Amino acid sequence: MSGRNRRGNTNTYVNNVRGPTSALTSFLNERGIRRANPAPRPAPADADPPAPESPTAGENGDTIEQEIQVEASSSSAGAASRPVRVTRASSSASSSMTKSPSKQPSDEDSGEDSDGSAKNSNKNGKVVSLSIASSRPRRNAAASSSSAATSSSKAESSADASKKRPRKKVESDDSDFELDISGSTPRSRFSHKGRTPLGSNKIEFCSRCRARFTIKAGTIPTTDDSGGVLCPTCVAAEADPSASMSKPKPAKKPRRKVQKQEIERNIPTLQDLCIQKIAEYIEDVEAFGDISDISMDKICKIICRNRSLSNKTLPLFLDPRHLDVSFYDCTEISPEALQSIASFCPDIRSLRLTYCGRINDDVISYYAKHLTQLKALSLTGPFLVTDAAYASFFREVGSRLEQFDLDHSARFNISAMESLATHCPHLKQLTLGDCMHLNDDWLPWVAKLSKLESLTIRNPEHDLSTDLMLDILKAAGSNLRSLELTNCTSFEDRVLSEGVRELCPNLQRLTLASCEELTSEGIISLFTDWKANSGLLHVDVSGCVGLDDKALEAIVSHNAHALETLNLSNVDELTSEGLKPLLRCAYLKRLDVSWVRAFDDELMGALIKAAPKLNQVTVWGDHRLTEYCPTRPGLRIVGREADYIDLRFK
User: Fold this and answer.
1) Interatomic CA distance for residues 229 and 207, integer angstroms
2) Of 98, 329, 458, 473, which sits with the fewest C-beta atoms within 10 Å of its C-beta?
3) Using 50, 70 and 90 to split pLDDT, how confident is the model at 646?
């Protein structure tokens, strides 16, 4: 509003504040209403009430302030008298604002008198203590005076309406008061903490074990000599000292929380994230630049898993400086691209080709002529290479070949095996896996390789003779470091007692997976008092269904101080008591107890404490191992039935 009022006169700035004024300020200035004198502070509640004073008026006779002492006449009230402040405002233009403070209103039915003051009386006519307190902060005197005048005039004009129904409190009322006629402590000073309802339960802490427990209503707790309360568990232990206190159950962890912790433990590094991003856009990469061989191998594994290794991406991994080359999925690589490996990397010493179904005789012949430094060759699935090509390759490579691994071949036969044994006498590692024509005729040629350090015979199509296998161990047993006989169902216990025990003193890794003819007696005869051997690092007896607790005891007794990897999968004859020797394997890193149903939570907790280096336990089919089994950071539990990882939340 501007500086002029409705009549065109300039307003008087009472507070020496220049600027726009509100409608209320202009109204008060027109009526000549000024700010009242500051009222004195009320006396404390516990102080003696002051003597009543005569009403005093302001300079212009606008407001009158008075303190009234109202005392309860009834002895049953029992409350001390409290001072009550009543502020009455009057205007020179209204005669109703100049009433005497001692005058009582004639209207008894109304809850308020004519000037807005509260009146209190009970039905018996007894006067009780009256406490009036404003719940709003004090506003300026001018506004309060105007509000009081307005409410007074409204009260006089609506006296009849107030008799019919009580006046409702609205948010816009300036006189917002709270009445307390009970004579007790105000509600604002009340606290539920200081009140204990009768007949309610009570929570206490045991003075002995400091456990929290509840004392039910109406019961008297047991106390000790010092007066402290005891929980029911301590009371029972005191009554029967022989009874041990029950261990508290471990806190139940939500399954989703367990999954989250498992995922957080496997957070990839920044280097791995960059490698994954490069592998994702491998089609757009022109060159890797100067990166390490380890990083390049990781990229190769990722793109091979995604079947992204093709003729276009293959040159990215070919460098003349590379000596060891491995490609884990050559399904999309043509024979010409496979042949280019020898052109780009002529100094290769070790070449590994997995799922190389498109390699042919021409590629093998090209490798034999151009890879002059080749010492190790590993092929998986070379279906097109013929027997003649293998024989030609072995003649060309000759005695420099030290490692030959062949898996899933249908054309490698006795003539190729004869060529290998004849032209490659310095062979140190030989793997024959899933070869369709493997039979007893091959074993005498294998026995001619007396310098073998690693021998693997996996999934032969025909039964192999135990005596011929003993001949191989007699020829190469003194040099063997690793022996794998997987799914050789025809081998008997003599392979262990007469062959491995007597002829392989330097053996470090032994795999006898799915050799169903082997018994517990054969395992016991192998490991009992085997003084020639210092201990195995790896033992795999998975699928040997004839083994029992005594066999495991013999394995642990000889290898506990050195054993790092143990596979007991499908050895379901083992019991909970028979698995306890595992606690002596302090250096164990990997354990497979799948389908060993006696493995449970208690044994897992004890094993974690006994083997601090344990980082992976495989437990497929072990229904007694729950989601509440003990674990620790860095330990991976694979195959637990309670674990269900929803890929949508990854």
Assistant:
1) 6
2) 98
3) very low
How are beta strands 131-134 and 177-180 bridged, if at all? antiparallel
Cα 143 to Cα 34, 41, 139, 140, 566, distances in angstroms: 9, 20, 7, 6, 90
Q: Answer yes or no: are the C-beta atoms of 649 and 623 closer than 8 Å.
A: no
Rounded distance, CA 276 to CA 487, Å?
37
pTM score of the predicted model: 0.59
Asked if 536 and 552 count as a contact pair (C-beta separation under 8 A), the reply is: no
Q: Is the pLDDT reported for residue 58 higher than 80?
A: no
Which own/partner pairs from 251-254 qualify as long-range (CB within 8 Å, at least 24 positions apart)? 252/628, 253/627, 253/628
Calpha distance 237→224 (Å, rounded): 13
Express each pLDDT in 547-571 by its tens digit: 999 999 999 999 999 999 999 999 9
Separation of alpha carbons 352 and 394, rounded Å: 17
Q: Which residues pair with 178 in a beta bridge?
A: 133
63: which residues sit within 8 A by CB, 6+ positions away? 36, 37, 57, 87, 88, 89, 90, 141, 145, 148
Check pLDDT > 70 for residue 90. no
* Interval 155-183 mean pLDDT: 45
pLDDT at 56: 43
In b/e form, how buried is each residue of 496-526, taking b as 16+ CB within 10 angstroms? Answer: bbbbbbbbbeebbbbbbbbbeebbbebbbbb
Say how far apart CA 142 and CA 581 lie, in whole Å: 93
List of long-range contacts for 636-639, beta carbons under 8 Å, 24+ apart: 639/594
